[in-house]
Structure formats: C-alpha cells, structure tokens
Write a structure and sequence with these properties.
Elements (H helix, E strand, L loop, with lengths): L1 H32 L1 H22 L8 H30 L22 H29 L2 H26 L4 H23 L10 H21 L10
Helix pairs in contact: 1-2, 1-4, 1-5, 1-6, 2-4, 3-4, 3-6, 3-7, 4-5, 6-7
Amino acid sequence: MTGVAVVLLTTFLASAVEAVEMVTIVLGVGATRGWRATFAGVGAGLLVLAVVVVAFGLALRATPIGPLRLIIGTLLLIFGLQWFRKGVRRVAAHGLAGLRMRAADEPSEWTGEGFDWTAFVLAFKGVVLEGLEVAFIVVSFGVNAGQLGPAVIGGVAALVVIAAIGAALRGLVTQIPRSLLQLMVGILLTTFGTFWSLEGLGVAWPAGDGAILGLLALYLLTAATFITIERRHAFGYSPGT
C-alpha cells in the first residue's frame, strides 16, 4: 500500500503542475476571447488526447515530445507576443484607471461573426501539449513502479481538481479589465511559449520547470518597462487602443 500511495501522490503532484499550466491558458483564452470557441477547443483537445492515449498506450514513452514542444511552443510564442504588444499599448493608454473599469465598459476582443478559430486553436494546443505531458508522467511513473492503475488515478484526479478550481475562478477572471487581462494572458503565453520552444530545441533549463518563474518575472519587468516608455511617448506616438 505504501508503494501505491507514493505513486498516487507523485503522479498527482507532478500532473497538477502541468494541469495548472493547461487551465491557466484555457481560462485566460476563454475570458479574453470568449468561452464557446474555447470550450470547443478544449473538447477537441481532450478527444485527440484520448485517441492518442488509447492508440499508443505505453508506447507514449517512446514518442519524441521535443519536436512537439518546439512546434507548439513557437505557436504560443507568436500568439503571446501579439497579445503582449496589444496589452502593453492598451494598459499604457488607460493607465491605472483601467483597474476601475468594468469589463462591460471595454470592447470584446472577438467581435466578428461566426466561429473564433484563434480561441479554438489556443485552447486546443494548450490541452494537447499539457495532456501529453500528463500522459508521459503517468505512464513513466506507473510502469516503472508497476502501479499503472494508481498512476492513472493520480493523473486524472489532478486534472479534475485543477479544472474545478479554474471553473470556480472563472467569474472572477471575467471581472478583470480586458486591457489588463490581455496583457496578463500575453505574458503567460509568451512565458510558456519561450520555455517549451527552447526545450524543444534541446535547451536544458538550469532550474527545470522552476525556470518558468524566472521567465515570468522577466516578461513582467519587460511589460512594466515598455508601459512606462509608451506613457512617456518615447517613440513619438500615442499608445493605441
């Protein structure tokens, strides 16, 4: 029973780290772009993930995740930098007064008709990549310890618990001013995109997953610097909206 408990706890905690990243991306995309397309992306991602896990099973351990990290990390980096730029300009334009604005007072990011494929793709990629990370964790721990069942339970439990917490915070996130929220999501996407794309190139981060915190601090500082520059009209133009 001790071995089972160790495997269960280890896979739960390790999977929870990946689940936090997944839910953070989904929550940010949904609150910024809209929930319909975001949930569709989540559903499609979970479906693809389920098919992959069922089809390949234990062979997932041999699947090269490096190229996948590079491709998806690069795409997240591209999206993240775009949102980062828009968020910096909008926060610079509104200043701290933006913190007192109601979300309803700001225009929605998605105003077109039809389906928001940007939200769909971002949510889909986040779920697939982090889901594969969880699958690797579960299979590796479970097979090595000879306790695949408890490992699967730990991984699934982590996803359910973190998703429930994210759902509980959904209402709070939607009350954040859209300009500030867009900047926050841009920073997060840029942070994860940088981390994953460089990992895909074979870069070994000194602190492992802890390097994400360092990147997050770096991009927060960068955003604060550019907001200050924008507000001082250093480049000879007024911040856009």
